[in-house]
Structure formats: C-alpha cells, structure tokens
Amino acid sequence: MGGSSDVPALRRGLAILRVLAGRAGPVSAGVIARDLDLPRSTTYHLLAELVAAGFVTHLPEERRYGLGMAAFELGSAYLRHDPLERLAGPLLRRLVDQVGRTAHLGVLHGGESLYLIKERPSQPQTLVTDVGVRLPAQLTASGRAMLAHLPAAHVRALLPSSERFVLRTDRGPRNLPELRRLLAAERRRGWAVEDGFVTAGFASVACAVFDHGARPIAAISVTFRHFCDTPGGEPCAETWPDLASQVHHAATELTTRISGRTA
C-alpha cells in the first residue's frame, strides 16, 4: 500500500461500502459487480480485503455480503463527533450576521422537526424554537423543506392519520392532501415558508440540506417577526425570496461541506 496505483482500489472499495449501505439487506457479489460495472474477479478481491478489515461481513450460506462491525463502529464514531452541527455552526453564524434574524439547523425525527442549533442576532426575539425542541414537521418551514423532497410513501408513513395533523394556531395543513399540495408548491419554489403556523406573529423560511444520495438530511431556517395585514387574519402570499436566497446559499454550502448533492 502507499503507491498511487492503490487509489483506484480504495475508491472501488469505498464504492462497494456505499452499495451495501444503500441496500435493505445483504447482496451478492454479482449484484455489486453489476452495480459498479466491475469485473467479478476484482469484486471478489476487494470484498475479501474488506472482510479481512471488518468492514464487510460474508454470509456463506446465503452467498451474500453485508456491512461489518467496523462499518458500524465508524458510523457510531461519526455521530459522536457531531459533524453536522460542527460544519453548520459557522454557516449559521454568518447567516445571522447577514440577515439579523434567528437561524436554526433542524432534522426530521419521525414526524417531528428537531432543532440541533440555534443562532441568534445581538437583539434576539423570544421563540418557541430552541435546541432540543420538537415540533410537528408539517407545521415548520424546516420540516416541510425536508418533507418536500421525500417520496410520497415516506411522507404518508410519517404522517399516517389525521390525528398527526395537530395545529398550534388556526393555520397549517389539516390533513395529508392539504400537506401534499403545500409540499408540491414549495418543492417547485425551492424553499418552504411558515407564516404563523407555529407561533402567531412569526414567520420562517427554510431550505433543505442534502446528503451524498440527494436525500434531505437537514434544513436551515430563519425565523422573524411578521404580522399579516389581511382580512380575517389569513396568511398573506409573501414568500420572502430575497431572504430565501440567503438561506438557500447557506444550505447549499452545508450540502457541499458534507459531500452531498442535489438531485
């Protein structure tokens, strides 16, 4: 090891790990060879090295391969290092300096939005969104920014019944068809908007952050004071495109930092 000729082998070995990580269960060497367009002899050689290192497990009775304990240990170590929060922190602080409003990093936790980071301006306003707080994902801009990029079946599994569609104010989707229409509009627009869904008098815009498989892994949002001057207190049609552009830039940079990609 150590020569430049080892680099292609390393890349192919990592590609095998990604194939295994993307499957619901163990797969055969033939499937791996086909997916990566590799000769079978090369595939078996790489698998043998990965098995010896503990990153892959061979199931001889099934003639299949799955991820090994070393891969699990590596993933656990990754989580312990809080990489997403560490990479996002400077971006959120920069965003707050630019827009003068509170910014969050959130992830999906089941059917809820879970906030991991909160960065506030020098004169912050009191918000219900704080680190560790969980809110219904369909109500928050950050939650819907991620839901908009999930398959319809996944969204239905997260929100399977009308009981999940709780309201905090008199605004927000009340059922799955309403949510789907809202998600479709936000997916076309490129960002999600929440106008008084969580707390009356506050609005948010959010954009999704994507992993290497173009899956939404997190969202960056900005929350600010806003009152709709409309009859009956109905939500106005404002979508704050200028602010959304800055949020989108931060989300895109975080996607790049975690080696993610958009579809």
From TrEMBL:
Keywords: DNA-binding, Glycerol metabolism, Transcription, Transcription regulation. Residues 70-260 form the IclR-ED domain. It comes from the Bacteria. Residues 7-69 form the HTH iclR-type domain. Coiled coil: none annotated. May be an activator protein for the gylABX operon. GO terms for biological process: glycerol metabolic process; negative regulation of DNA-templated transcription. GO terms for molecular function: DNA binding; DNA-binding transcription factor activity. This is Glycerol operon regulatory protein. It holds the Pfam family IclR_C.
